[in-house]
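Comment thread on ticket #2218

A.B. wrote:
> Attaching the input chain for the structure job we discussed in standup.
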Amino acid sequence: MYIEAEFYSYDHVIRGYIDTTQERLSDFLNLKNDTYVLIREAQINRLLGKGKTSPIMMPEARMEKHSILFAYPIERDITTKSIYRRATRLIYTVAVLMPSFELIGSIHLTEKLDIRRVLLSRPEDFIPITDATAVYSLYPAISIWRSAIVFNKNKMILIGEHAPVEHPFEASQAGESAGL
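C.D. wrote:
> Ran it. Output below, let me know if you need it in another format.
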């Protein structure tokens, strides 16, 4: 089954079709038998040039999984596995820093969020977050919202529970009084 997806690397966004063999995108990326993804009808854009320059078009491209920062399906992931996968999970809003990107979304865990051990017990390299936003930190006007984003935990710089600051002025005063 071919689905359309976008893949983000450090400098480029690659859009095209992948054969997921009836797997969800996160499950497909976590398959250990291949170290790459074959993308059909690939359109490659520079992140800072998106919309300003013509994309590089390729009938087929091979992208190494280790170079993927994050990815998402263009359409909602409604494979059989996603429809019937129902496990009781705890939901936490997290912020994830990646090279040149900031992700905020909900992570679904079977255990309580322990920041010292988070993601250590998971054998998967690609972790899904839902109701997710990705902001290109070098140019914050590039912001993407998706119902699900799958990030590469091996490229992650930092993860923590996200607590939005409601009153930034009060937060900065608290930091100053704490000697920060």
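A.B. wrote:
> Thanks. Noting for the ticket: Residues 79-84 have pLDDT under 50 and may be disordered.
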